[in-house]
Amino acid sequence: MTAQTTENNCPAEGLLRMLSGKWKPQIFRLALDGPLRFNSLIRQISGSNKQSIAVALKEMEEQGLLEKTVIKLKPLHIEYNLSAKGLSLVSIFKELEHLS
């Protein structure tokens, strides 16, 4: 059995790989409650910094977990929401939380 086959058969393993990183699990958890804004994440995640949050958001967007939306109201701002792929992984994420 190849590593690819194992990953395809185990959604939890795939989720763990996508959420590996210092702030990604916290960002995913906060995204369950609704849209995220960058400065709000900096305030909510103790010990985080702008660069690490920016990198985590970018990676999660590239992985298809989050969608970035530019809100063109004044002041202009950006919100991050769980994508369809991210929403499909919520039940797995919650199961992993219950194991700890």
From TrEMBL:
PROSITE patterns: HTH_HXLR. Residues 10-100 form the HTH hxlR-type domain. This is Transcriptional regulator, HxlR family. InterPro entries: HTH_HxlR, WH-like_DNA-bd_sf, WH_DNA-bd_sf. Keywords: DNA-binding, Transcription, Transcription regulation.
